[in-house]
């Protein structure tokens, strides 16, 4: 897929390079995390450094006589690891290599999440440990429902490893539930993640008042990855027949709804988009034809039975998968289950504005990402680690006035539960 979006990928790489290392000989992870670039790129660099540090830790020789696992030591170890990570230095060559990997990976993941996850997580292996998969999921910032549901499934099943085929079918089933439970407008809005990644290099050049658009090729491969072939065919027609290279979310939602309305009228029939061409293979100037091809009942029944047997043999049935999908939308975190207030509701407008300006240097995306992370935290202990990361990366003194305000508001959030979680 990369060749289709080579122009966009090069633009993003050039913009990230200019906003980070530039002509410098090296750059620290802290500088990268504090720069004005897309959160997914930051996550990729941070996860790479964390992985390298974990590898070095594994090579360390530690005596069993010392209590490395007591909470006080673990807390200090966490602080040390954070300091080592944020001061990690990338030279130009290492930075450019990782940047190329990060941009290609992120673009592929945003456009083809199922395909990219399977290939990235398994790396031509037929089986993969659950711990390795969960560690690699840290590279994936967007489409959080994958991580939530996968980790929940692994924990519920007590799995130690999973096969390539099982994992691939599991992703397909998860997305099948997501598609069935969301409206056409909601499905169209899922592509906002792609738009945000492309717009990250535009420096606000998107004209105000104009609708946000994404490359139609990106929308095509996105819905192909979701196994929505009818939508894919319709978008290809719009591209090839109507010369539509960019598409806005409203038009995309209309197309999805149009295709869904056709397929819903013929639930056991196959919908095929046909583009009429002349003898030279040139598309004729006429409306798109949609033909309905009846599938013999015996053919449908046989295929459905074969498919059911194959899935049951390869993938254990996910307990109440439908209800788990619902939980991702309504109560996605432990914090939500505890009915904890959002951090933003505890901050006054003045406090939020000052924190955005002084701690986040007016970076609204990073501010919101941090608020979201704190909202997901189910305990004060978990939230305090997020604040530790924030203050170290942003080079903010924990004793500064605004850092204390944010810390106190976060602590206050847990009410009577904070003492037991501290």
Describe the structure.
The protein is mainly alpha-helical and 422 residues long. The protein contains 23 helices and eight strands. A two-stranded antiparallel sheet has the order 1-2. The protein has a two-stranded antiparallel ribbon with strand order 3-4. α1 crosses α5, α5 packs across α6 and α6 runs antiparallel to α9. It is globular and about 65 Å long. The C terminus is likely disordered.
| Estimated helix fraction | 55-70%
How many domains? The number is 3
Uncertain spans, ≥5 residues at pLDDT below 50? 267-337, 416-422
Strand content: 5-15%
Radius of gyration: 24 Å
The number of E-state strands comes to 8
Summary tags:
two-stranded antiparallel sheet; 422 residues; 7% strand; 3 domains; 23 helices; disordered C terminus; mainly alpha
Task: Describe how the helices and strands are arranged.
Layout: H1 6-19, E1 26-28, H2 29-33, H3 39-59, H4 71-86, E2 89-91, H5 92-111, H6 113-122, E3 127-129, H7 130-136, H8 144-157, E4 161-163, H9 164-180, H10 184-189, H11 192-199, E5 213-215, H12 216-225, H13 229-242, E6 246-248, H14 249-265, E7 269-274, E8 289-294, H15 297-314, H16 321-330, H17 334-337, H18 343-346, H19 349-358, H20 364-376, H21 380-393, H22 401-413, H23 418-421
């Amino acid at each position: 897929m990369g060749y289709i979006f080579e122009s966009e990928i090069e633009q993003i790489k050039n913009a990230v390079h200019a906003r980070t290392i530039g002509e410098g000989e090296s750059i620290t992870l802290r500088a990268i995390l504090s720069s004005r670039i897309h959160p997914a790129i930051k996550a990729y660099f941070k996860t790479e450094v964390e992985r390298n540090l974990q590898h070095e830790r594994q090579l360390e020789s530690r005596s069993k006589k010392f209590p490395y696992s007591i909470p006080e030591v673990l807390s200090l170890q966490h602080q040390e690891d954070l300091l080592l990570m944020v001061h990690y230095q990338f030279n130009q060559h290492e930075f450019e290599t990782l940047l190329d990997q990060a941009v290609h990976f992120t673009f592929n993941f945003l456009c083809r999440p199922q395909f990219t996850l399977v290939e990235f997580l398994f790396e031509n292996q037929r089986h993969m440990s659950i711990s390795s998969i969960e560690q690699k999921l840290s590279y994936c910032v967007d489409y959080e429902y994958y991580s939530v549901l996968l980790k929940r499934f692994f924990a519920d099943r007590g799995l130690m490893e999973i096969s390539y085929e099982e994992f691939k079918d599991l992703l397909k089933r998860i997305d099948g539930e997501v598609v069935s439970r969301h409206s056409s407008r909601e499905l169209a809005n899922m592509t906002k993640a792609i738009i945000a990644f492309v717009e990250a290099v535009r420096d606000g050049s998107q004209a105000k008042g104009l609708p946000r658009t994404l490359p139609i090729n990106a929308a095509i491969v996105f819905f192909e990855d979701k196994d929505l072939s009818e939508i894919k065919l319709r978008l290809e027609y719009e591209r090839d027949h109507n010369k539509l290279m960019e598409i806005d979310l409203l038009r995309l939602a209309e197309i999805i709804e149009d295709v869904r309305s056709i397929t819903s009228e013929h639930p056991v029939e196959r919908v095929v988009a046909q583009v009429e061409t002349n003898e030279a293979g040139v598309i004729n100037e006429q409306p798109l034809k949609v033909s309905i091809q009846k599938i013999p009942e015996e053919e449908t029944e046989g295929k459905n039975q074969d498919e059911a047997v194959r899935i049951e043999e390869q993938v254990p049935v996910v307990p109440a998968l439908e209800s788990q999908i619902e939980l991702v939308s309504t109560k996605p975190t432990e914090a939500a289950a505890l009915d904890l207030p959002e951090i933003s509701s505890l901050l006054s407008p003045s406090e939020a504005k000052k924190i955005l300006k002084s701690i986040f240097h007016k970076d609204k995306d990073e501010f919101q990402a941090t608020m979201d992370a704190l909202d997901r935290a189910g305990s004060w202990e978990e939230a305090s680690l997020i604040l530790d990361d924030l203050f170290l990366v942003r080079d903010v003194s924990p004793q500064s006035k605004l850092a204390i305000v944010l810390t106190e508001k976060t602590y206050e959030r847990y009410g009577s539960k904070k003492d037991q979680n501290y």
